[in-house]
Specification:
365 residues, two-stranded parallel ribbon, 7 helices
């Protein structure tokens, strides 16, 4: 894995992890259970519909929606009188390896209490790619993804839960922050964490990355840009999100990741220094199964569901890449106005805010 492949600083090796998996077949099974916890896109994995359900799946992903609009003029005018966002810190890679605090996220409750305060109405620049954005005050890379305290749950001991939460965050780094993946390269390290004995998921991954379509859309799991058209505007990706867990079906550890990523980008065309931002909020639910009950490989998870909500990433475009617009003005969509930074709204509510085929309008970028 490139920088950030192991952002958690865990002292457990892969060999320790596999040993834990084997030894934990007799682990705690009666531990208390924890309750479960635009843009432009809510995604249902349509490939689920024409194949036999996997026995480990407990719920299904939502259908895709997108929103293409960026600004509502009245809202932008109001933002102009807000406090100017702080300039972001600098890091040395796309996802801030080794920078920031692991507890940088202020979301210690399941969701933020309210939307973040408004920034200014100023547009981003190459020198200040987060100008005018609440993300200027967010942490960078995995530092913005908070982990809960571990406790014995399902088939896992406390130590195993801690390691599994770190592995779950490793997947987020490999799928949504890895510099190569962001350039459109094959997300091999992320895929290596997905259970190879989940045939429909493997089929989806293969087809979505080789022949993307509305039905097979890799953006539900990965953040990818076409490097011939888009390049990063600086070295920072801002993040805010949390990881939660509970005991799932068949004693699995069910982990839910809900993270917002803010990518500043610019056109790859020469002499074009316009900067824009792409905002992606992605939820992935994964089951880390007991190998004594479900066929799985140690250190891998089975995908339960995934959903994605994007801003300035294209509407009804199925190229397999996030497709930003670099025009000075962005057309509003025909869906509702949504604040892409508002994490006080659960994904269920956010996804229910527009018709299945509508692109909405972003209140800010």
């Amino acid at each position: 894995m490139n920088p950030g492949g192991d952002q958690s600083g865990s002292s457990l090796s892969d060999e320790d992890w596999e040993r834990f998996l084997q030894e934990s077949e007799d682990g705690v099974r009666d531990a208390p259970k924890e309750p479960s916890a635009r843009a432009r896109m809510v995604t249902r994995r349509l490939q689920e519909e024409d194949a036999r359900p996997d026995p480990w799946r407990s719920h299904q992903p939502a259908r895709p929606r997108r929103r293409t609009g960026w600004y509502v003029l009245g809202l932008v005018a109001a933002l102009a009188v807000a406090v100017v966002a702080l300039a972001p810190g600098r890091v040395t890679d796309w996802f801030g390896s080794g920078f920031g605090s692991s507890s940088a996220s202020d979301e210690t409750t399941p969701l933020a209490a309210s939307p973040p305060p408004a920034g200014s109405a100023e547009l981003p620049t190459l020198a200040e790619p987060f100008k005018g954005s609440p993300a200027a005050r967010w942490a960078s890379g995995t530092a913005g993804i908070s982990l809960p305290a571990a406790r014995a749950t399902g088939w896992m001991s406390k130590a195993q839960v801690a390691r599994t939460l770190e592995r779950s965050r490793d997947f987020l780094a490999a799928s949504s922050l890895d510099p190569g993946v962001l350039r459109g390269e094959h997300p091999a390290e992320a895929i290596a964490l997905i259970n190879p004995h989940q045939p429909k998921e493997r089929s989806f991954l293969d087809r979505s990355l080789t022949a993307p379509s509305e039905k097979y859309n890799p953006l539900v799991l990965f953040s990818r840009f076409d490097a011939t058209k888009v390049e990063p505007a600086g070295d920072v990706v801002k993040t805010r999100g949390r990881i939660t867990y509970r005991a799932g079906e068949r004693g699995a550890l069910e982990v839910t990741t809900d993270v917002t990523y803010v990518y500043p980008v610019m056109s790859a065309e020469a002499d074009d220094d316009r900067v824009t931002r792409v905002i992606v909020r992605r939820e992935v639910v994964m089951n880390w199964h007991d190998p004594a009950k479900v066929v799985t490989e140690p250190g891998t998870f089975s995908v339960v569901s995934n959903r994605v909500d994007t801003t300035n990433a294209g509407c009804e475009t199925y190229t397999g890449y996030l497709t930003p617009s670099f025009t000075d003005e962005h057309d509003a969509g025909d869906g509702p106005v949504v604040d892409p930074y508002d994490r006080s709204v659960a994904m269920d509510e956010r996804m229910g805010g527009a018709g299945d085929e509508k692109c909405g309008t972003a209140a800010r970028s």
